[in-house]
Structures are given as C-alpha cells and as structure tokens.
Amino acid sequence: MSLTLRSLIVLAAFALCLPALAATVEGRARAVDGDTLEVAGQKVRLFGVDAPELDQGCERGGRRWACGQAAREELAAIIGRKRLVCVVQDIDRYGRSVAVCEAGGEDVGALMVRRGMALAYRRYSGRYVNAEAAAQAEGVGIWTSAYVQPEAYRQAERAAVGGQAAPDPGCVIKGNIGGTGGRIYHLPGQADYEATRINEKKGERWFCSEAEARAAGFRRADR
Q1: Burial class (CB in 10 A: 0-12, 13-18, 19+), 147
Q2: Which of the 8 DSSP states describes residue 194?
Q3: Which residue in 5, 6, 18, 78 has a CA-CA distance of 20 to 30 Å to 128?
C-alpha cells in the first residue's frame, strides 16, 4: 500500500470521528421558548442570541409582564409554518444543536433581536450586536422594560431549585414518583417544589413543559 493511499484512509477515518458541525437541520419547527426550537424532531438553540426564560417576567410601567412567554410567542410568529434551514455552528452541553436558522430567507435570530425579544449573546458571538443597538434605540420589546439578563436569571434559578440544579436551565419542572407509584409533577413556586428531589434511578425526571410531563404520564401537583 502506498503512503499516499494509507494517508487518505487515515484522514477519511479521522473525518468520520469529527462532529458534523457543518450539517444543516431542516423542516418545520415549533418554538420551545424564545431562543430554542424543535426542528424536524431535533432541539435547536439559536446561535448568538439569548431570550428571556419562559417563566421570566419583566417590569413595565410598574407592572409585571410575562416577557418570557412573549418571546416564545414572537418566535412562533416569526417561524409560522415556514420551512426552516438551520446551519449548525456547535453542539451545546445539553446535546442541542446551536445553529443559525433562516425562515423564508430571513435570519430568525436577527429578527428576534431586532424586535427586542432577545439579546445579542456577546459571550458567544457579536453577530447581532448591531440589531440589538437598533432595537434599544427604538425602545421595542424588552427595551421598554426593566429586566434581568437571561443568563443572570438562569443562574439565580439554578441556585433556587431546592438545592438541586436542573441539568437544563430551561427544564425545571420536577417529575416525582411517590411511594405508591403515583406520578406528579411540580412547577416552580408550588408548595412542595423546593422539597422535591429528583432521583432518576427511580424513573423521576426533569421536564421542559407541562405537556411533556403529561405525555410521560405525570399529573400536576394540586398545590
């Protein structure tokens, strides 16, 4: 075997071991929260943006408004029933693809930031800094409010999850299995939430939404 052929075989084998970061994820999508999508059955985190968490509130005119819910609704409106093309940039620690996504030829992350429903995530990219500056100058979306940076909010939430950090800061619903086998899920703020501990060996789980918990056979705690 020639050295050239041997080298080609080694390089080909090495390439198969590399993560496919140049891959695309395509298809119709649904908004999980303000910066996360489910595209063709895969979780995709928008690259370079950070939106308020789903349960996060902002303050506007002395009153609280659900900016996290509003961010998800805005993302859902942007994607509609369009086919998305998401170019993967990285894989995060939760196994999600981190991608730049386009819907109808428009950059979804750019639209979210430009409409003031997400921030430029400067820790990872300066891609949307100009869009953020324009949204701030016009006073749209969360720029009409007093708010906590989403990253700081997540850190505070992790510290407050009853001493047990959720593996994904967007998935903080606790699915608990009782001594008689009853399956109950607890939401942040409910009476027994902080005291509940998740033991995955027993089949207990963290959920990202109530719908996900119900689909797994859990019911909402009464209090």
Answers
A1: buried
A2: T
A3: 18
Quote the CA–CA distance of 110 and 132 in Å, as a whole number: 9
209: left (phi over 0), alpha (psi -120 to 50) or beta: beta
Which residues touch 200 (CB under 8 Å, ≥6 apart)? none
The DSSP secondary-structure symbol of 33 reads S
Give the DSSP H or E segment for 193: none
> Whole-model pTM?
0.65
Inter-residue contact 212 to 177 (CB < 8 Å) = no
Spell out the alpha helix ranges (H) of the chain: 3-17, 67-79, 108-114, 129-138, 150-160, 210-215
pLDDT tens digits for 97-138?
Answer: 999 999 999 999 999 999 999 999 999 999 999 999 999 999
Closest to 101 (Cα-Cα) out of 47, 63, 52: 47
For the chain, the first-to-last Cα distance in angstroms comes to: 72
Q: What's the half-sphere exposure (Cβ side, CA atoms, 13 Å) at 218?
A: 26
